[in-house]
Amino acid sequence: MLPLTEKKIALTIKEMESGLGRIRDLSISIGKLSAADWTEPEGPTPYPSLTALRTWDRTLLSRYQPFYMPFCDLCCLCTYGKCDLTGTKKGACGITMPAQQSRTVLLSACIGAATHTSHARELVTYAIKKAGRDCPINPGGNAIGVEAPIIRLVCGEKPEILADLETVLDYCESQITALLAVTHTGQEGDPLDFESKVLHAGMIDHVGMEVADLAQISALGYPKADPDAPLVALGMGTVDTTKPVILVIGHNVPPSVAIIDYLHNENLSDHVEVTGICCTSIDATRYSPRAKIIGPMSWQLRYIRSGIPDVIVVDEQCIRTDALAEAEAIHAPFIATSEKNCLGLPDRTNDTADAIVTDLVGGKLAGVLILDPEKAGEVAVRVARTVAPARKNVRASTDPATIREQVTACTQCRLCQRACPNDLKIPQGMKAAGAGELSLLAGLYETCVGCGRCEQACTKKIPVHSLIVAAAAERIKNEKFVIRTGRGAIQDIEIRNVGGPIVLGEIPGVIGFVGCANYANGGKEVAEMSVEFAKRRYIVCTSGCTAMSIGMYRDEEGKTPYEQFPGSFSAGGIVNVGSCVANAHIAGATIKIASVFARRNLRGNYAEIADYVHNRVGAVGVAWGAMSQKAAAIAAGFWRLGIPVVVGPHGTKYRRMLLGRADHDADWYVHDQRTGEDVYAGPAPEHLFVAAETKEEAMVLVAKLCMRPNDTTRGRAMKLTHYIDLSQRNLGTIPDDIPRYVRTTADIPVTLKGEITRILAQSDWKERPIPDPTLLSRDKPSPPKER
Amino acid sequence: MLPLTEKKIALTIKEMESGLGRIRDLSISIGKLSAADWTEPEGPTPYPSLTALRTWDRTLLSRYQPFYMPFCDLCCLCTYGKCDLTGTKKGACGITMPAQQSRTVLLSACIGAATHTSHARELVTYAIKKAGRDCPINPGGNAIGVEAPIIRLVCGEKPEILADLETVLDYCESQITALLAVTHTGQEGDPLDFESKVLHAGMIDHVGMEVADLAQISALGYPKADPDAPLVALGMGTVDTTKPVILVIGHNVPPSVAIIDYLHNENLSDHVEVTGICCTSIDATRYSPRAKIIGPMSWQLRYIRSGIPDVIVVDEQCIRTDALAEAEAIHAPFIATSEKNCLGLPDRTNDTADAIVTDLVGGKLAGVLILDPEKAGEVAVRVARTVAPARKNVRASTDPATIREQVTACTQCRLCQRACPNDLKIPQGMKAAGAGELSLLAGLYETCVGCGRCEQACTKKIPVHSLIVAAAAERIKNEKFVIRTGRGAIQDIEIRNVGGPIVLGEIPGVIGFVGCANYANGGKEVAEMSVEFAKRRYIVCTSGCTAMSIGMYRDEEGKTPYEQFPGSFSAGGIVNVGSCVANAHIAGATIKIASVFARRNLRGNYAEIADYVHNRVGAVGVAWGAMSQKAAAIAAGFWRLGIPVVVGPHGTKYRRMLLGRADHDADWYVHDQRTGEDVYAGPAPEHLFVAAETKEEAMVLVAKLCMRPNDTTRGRAMKLTHYIDLSQRNLGTIPDDIPRYVRTTADIPVTLKGEITRILAQSDWKERPIPDPTLLSRDKPSPPKER
Amino acid sequence: MPAADPWQTAEIAGPKKASVITKPAMAQAVIHRAQHPVLIIGHYAATIDIGERKLVDYLLDLARAHAIPVIATGHVNRTLKERGYTGAVIMPAVEAGHRIADPCWNGPDGKGPCDLAIIAGLPYPMEWTLLSGLKHFAPYMKTITLDNTYQPNANWSFANIPVKEWQENLEAITVTIGTEGQTDV
Amino acid sequence: MPAADPWQTAEIAGPKKASVITKPAMAQAVIHRAQHPVLIIGHYAATIDIGERKLVDYLLDLARAHAIPVIATGHVNRTLKERGYTGAVIMPAVEAGHRIADPCWNGPDGKGPCDLAIIAGLPYPMEWTLLSGLKHFAPYMKTITLDNTYQPNANWSFANIPVKEWQENLEAITVTIGTEGQTDV
Ligand code: SF4
Ligand code: SF4
Ligand code: SF4
Ligand code: SF4
Ligand code: SF4
Ligand code: SF4
Ligand code: SF4
Ligand code: SF4
């Protein structure tokens, strides 16, 4: 039976006779979420349809134009193809290359939004089962008034209990279905309309993420908006390998919860190590700080191949699709737990734990599918405890001699390097290793993202990645770090406290480091960048794999960033909100600035709030090692709020940038709500989506992109100080666009007064007013209210 | 506000006091569709989850193995890529080539299912607006007892009113979202699990299609399961070009309905031609037989470029994405009407019809977006009537002299031919045309699918397609045909009548020609095939563009197949069910054979019914010019029912076939429900998805694939007769696999007794029992009941 | 070896591409070396003119000269019978591909797994996809196409060559087949 | 002209591929012919060794010899300044691509739309995608890369050549630049 049959119901009956004989004023509302006492007036676009925010999207897209960089000249999406779309050529369906690229972006964003939404559906269903339909949504107790800023903003609803979230998900699913339909051959043809739909998909993605994290925070007792969320162990070096070790990989926490619960109930918590990779591990530590985080997704191969895990449990998302084969190679029993990731395994859900344990321990089965988290949890623990003793003896580590022996086969053909996404100089490492010098090979460990493509390419079947890892064995032992686990949402009081400083400029920006840092050196670079900005007293937010990468770093005193900086949403804080779905809290924080601090109405009022955020909240997202479709969707959700996103060089593979033209003055006028006039406000922020080539370039960009038309002179001076300083240090020069950002002489940082005054004098700079800025034209009819 | 707030509610209260003071036995069920009087017991899998039918899928897939034919060596789905997956190489996420190909198929199937489901959502919302939430679902009045076989089978629900369909769509959307999530990087890794999910997507697609057609039939008064649905005009030659001409393109009928209504209300029906391309046109003729069908989607360029349409109205799906540019080229005002296809046009939904008409007529705007079908209808008519008189004078036709002039630029570089999906010998046509001989060029018209890629490739900018069309001007004038418009569902009485003959073999099979015939000669070939099988007294079903292609054909007496054969679901009938979404009725008919004829329970009883259909109903689908993602989803829906699908040579681009191995005897055992034994039943049907290279090969295959284990000896003899006869005529020989299909000597066709007895004698043939067949193992636990 | 592009411009395959047959001896050597070749003849072979003859005639010459078992796809068997060739196994091209990719299949003649598929006369995109299936999933065997269009997914293919050059090649291949193939390919 | 494959094996582009620079004169001719070339220098130029010098040194030779305006991407400007070159315009590579693709943009020096982009020193996949953007959307200009890896999306690129060969080419190009380019490309 559909969960629909249990949807929230509000029933009011004024008069009635029994047996349904007479009824008067019977009012039943189903799926009506908003609390009766929510008096906030409804804005123009609750539950927006595909085009309801098209006007706002076009406003953004006319400033921030797509620059397409096709990743293939062809389209192969239907059997008419492949079609050659080079240049101005059209496909058999009439599509042009710009439309094809934006269509591909939409497809990615749909996959991303679907992934989060489907995950949210799993979590809500699970949370309801665990805590009941009436379990209140509670991300932070009294500290939080606006419990679901994105849902309020997008859906115009105020969810109160878990069951309310189901209706929100119905909406998300219907939008995703419609958006996916748009990618069908012979539908949308205009690139900007595709882009508008990308933004819609991104917005839906954020709704889905918010639902997901609200559900698990509420039902599982995670830290509730807690700046002092516990510090937990991070890194392969933290694992006590004398104990049985369970590895969980993925994003959907229920199996991990079941493992932890089972251990607790059986008094085994001290006797088994629960270790995790990817977001599941963060969420496991939100549930129990005893769990250990191994590292980001790129740690999968190296950790499995270490032989340490005695049992591997996977759920969904970002799991290597060859995880089963890798587990088999180390003879670790394997448990899949998600309908979305069955890996061809026999479904043992309906068998007894005893029977399953027997088959796994006896080696009758290499792996099983168990679609019942509790059963999976019990089986995982029991199997781990049974197989561990024997496995401890066989854990193979490749010694230097073996490495040298294996590398001798290398012909220096360079195919491994040509397959490596990071173009790593593997052949040189092989050569040196052959000559007895392992340091070059070991050095690759830092930049290797563990994708295994090198091994696939090697015609000599050299286990390249394994050798790199083996050569780096010492470093790995020292992978002992801490990370502050996911705190969840931002408190209203925090928002109130920083609202002023952000506007005044004591806080020059809010920077979110999100996604995974899967790029050569990407982990180290996000750590360095976050420390740099935290030191400069920006608010640094992070989540997911990037949050782990930040933790894998030490300052001179050996402190990780989480030990060095507070976890509060305040100047100089490094705020780990949680797993990937917790990204919603970062977007939510910017929205809450409009609501809690500036008292704007959120309810179904998307365009106004996005306009507020875009013009006033100096937030920038950084997805350094951008990789998956989820990342595309997350970024799109930020774009629709007008928040710029910077990606690393690999991010150019997302098919397009959204770039402003600082040299087109006309693009940068805003309406001044005080005077009603259009005022040049400078290219602030200059881009909506831009790839940086290096960490140094990224930092300068980020500092620049934090500027907003609404900055006070004090705020602007502060932001310019950082921008100029970062530019001087990293690019060796004062940026040449300073005149665009100086509105009045009061904007000029005191320390640079002379220099900047000289620059302004050499340009045709004129003082100009500081507007009360908006991009919304009040004259134009508001978009139709649909759906 | 969500439509959810208006979901169907069943309320029962036994006792209560006013003011909600005391309530007893209050039962409210929301989204509960099934009529209270529906006593059919519920099967094991109502609303099946992603894995609920995995066991059934694996049963099919173990017989019908995927043979992957990668359409590209690479994967480019995330920014880790591109990854080289050649051979056994794995991508950076660990994926293998078979998994990647099946993942791509899943992506296509998701897009297809989303397209139908989103379309269904539009239609249900529209139908409810038009006819009310309580409008009964009525596909055929008293003639139909099982109103929604697919919904009953899949969802375990019995929908009664339009509102009931919304809950069904909620389910579809949630499944599509989950399935799409499966395509995310790092989820499913097993090819067969991907394939199982493809089948799930196909099943959902069929639910979506059924919802869509039930909604429009019920609300718009279409023919209701009417074998004598009207014959309507088909072909460019049928248009009265002296009148203003409106062209509608797409699939979503509301704008067409509005045009027809407006004409009717204004007494203009005689004064304006309503012409259409693609399914919208079929549905327009279901609404009003005065509307005219121009042809399949491949007629878009040729018809627009003829200059005949005075106004072009597009909705969604299968519309050339350059339709706006083509419309502009002939100065025909353009109206887009779908959120899914906005084409960058200004949204004028909230403006008055007067204002929009003025802007379109005055040429101020080339096109507009109007998201209100009624308004779009009015505007279309008024604009057409205003602009038509002037446009009649400018309609350009390219005369032979102009053609000869234009072809002189041709360098015989052959780039056009190399771009042509059908490898047409355009350069030869150009050469001959240059020499004054147009017949070669004109001859290409028959095989050209109007994709325009030739023009895109020509470095001399020769308008190749236009010249082909111009050269064929005479033929086009003669495109005057008729088609029996879509009748909708199949009546229960028809099912009862054919159930016996199908089992007895008087009717050797049910063949569905679906999709679009976009392949060189594809249209002609589907017509010939359907006539051939109708003559042989198979039941021929068709829909969509293929139904049009079948109509564009005449026998020696000049009759189209629709004039030659009846429209009833009976031996020798050619049954046009309607537009693409009406394909649900073809699948539905096979399900109804199990239900209405064989009295099996449908309710949530998928595996048993699919097993019935697979083993007993000799149905085969043919999608000759397979093209879009929808076609992939439709095919997958048939596969899950165990119905084989034959595609044309382009169909190999779907990335894989599902092929049986006739030479593996062990694959073809079925359980005999009478004896409990496993019995060799022959490879019947031999394949689930197979591409034929030619029409001739396809016909032999289709005849063979109609055989089923349950065939009576009389039925088998009849089927063998056709199989052998078609093979002899087309392949010049008796097939060598006859011994596999002859179970007892009674199976041997009388006319071929001697020959076949000889063949059997030369093989190691032995008589064997005819089973009461099933592939379901009663011993194995039934799949878990989830969701 | 000269570069070659897919005949249908957009049908790019990927990193692994067919070697171009630049002279008949290459093809001869490939065919000669095979223990269990199979010849797949598509229906276009019956209609494509090469000089006075059809493609199918050259292919049958080859089959007969080397006793190569034939799989007839489409409806080409009708033509084979007209030519007096009755030994072909009839099956759809994709079914042939599926079986050939199975290292346990004993070939159309039951004599053992195929180690070389010689393919010609199929519609270009169908041959392309079929060869792709074999390229990826039949690692134990090789493929060669004798069409005059470049098929990147084969192991060996002609470039896109004119009919005359094709004819010369085919004549050389079919005439001298059976003699030692000397060229290293 | 020899065939060339993308340096990163899987980065196949499509039907339109770069002509391979087989001798310095080709590159010279291309550069010489340009009215408004622009030189985009990526950050790797500062780290890649070519003999005793860095790639950036060759590129600056070129810029200086031909007075080609320079766009410095990444953080390479720091190195340019160390080399005494202060005239570079600093912008992210993708922003440079976006502007260059605009036929109304007057180039980094304001002297007119670019008709040739000379690119080197970017991360391979980033350069690949950037060149793809220009290939498709900047029809009025040409692109050449001076890296020693084949970039299929440029109009001209070296094949994947060893450093020594690269060095010889770069020396020839930068030394003789400004003299008549004679080779037909
Ligand atoms: S779009 Fe991707 S899968 Fe398609 S041809 Fe290009 S690289 Fe291959
Ligand atoms: S979707 Fe369009 S461009 Fe892509 S393959 Fe199909 S017809 Fe060609
Ligand atoms: S595993 Fe490491 S070295 Fe190997 S290809 Fe991937 S990133 Fe490069
Ligand atoms: S691919 Fe293998 S053999 Fe070639 S250089 Fe790399 S490690 Fe050596
Ligand atoms: S999805 Fe996997 S195979 Fe495809 S590009 Fe990404 S990492 Fe590579
Ligand atoms: S329009 Fe016709 S001739 Fe031209 S490429 Fe398409 S099918 Fe071939
Ligand atoms: S592409 Fe143009 S020039 Fe070349 S053969 Fe075709 S029509 Fe002639
Ligand atoms: S048959 Fe094909 S082209 Fe025609 S309307 Fe249906 S899906 Fe579209």
Total strands of chain C: 9
Q: Kindly state the mean pLDDT of chain C as a whole number?
A: 93
Which CATH architecture of chain C is right? 3-Layer(aba) Sandwich
Most extensive interface between two protein chains, with residue counts: A-B, 131 and 131 residues
Total helix count of chain A? 29
Weakly predicted, low-confidence segments of chain C:
178-185
The coarse overall form of chain A would be globular
Provide the CATH top-level class of the largest domain in chain A: Alpha Beta
* Mean pLDDT over all positions of chain A: 93
**How would you write the strand order of the largest sheet of chain A?**
5-21-24-20-19-16-17-18
Count of separate DSSP helical elements of chain C: 6
In what order do the strands lie side by side in the largest sheet of chain C? 6-5-2-7-8
Largest sheet of chain C: 5 strands, parallel
Q: Roughly how many Å apart are the termini of chain C?
A: 11 Å
Work out the strand percent of chain C: 5-15%
Strand-residue proportion of chain A: 5-15%
Helix/strand-derived class of chain C? alpha/beta
What oligomeric state do the depicted chains represent?
Answer: heterotetramer
Small molecules bound in the structure, each named once: iron/sulfur cluster
What descriptors fit this protein?
heterotetramer; A: about 775 residues; alpha/beta; Helicase, Ruva Protein, domain 3; Rossmann fold; 5 domains; 6-stranded parallel β-sheet; 25 strands; globular; disordered N terminus; C: about 180 residues; 5-stranded parallel β-sheet; two-stranded parallel sheet; 9 strands; about 35% helix; binds iron/sulfur cluster
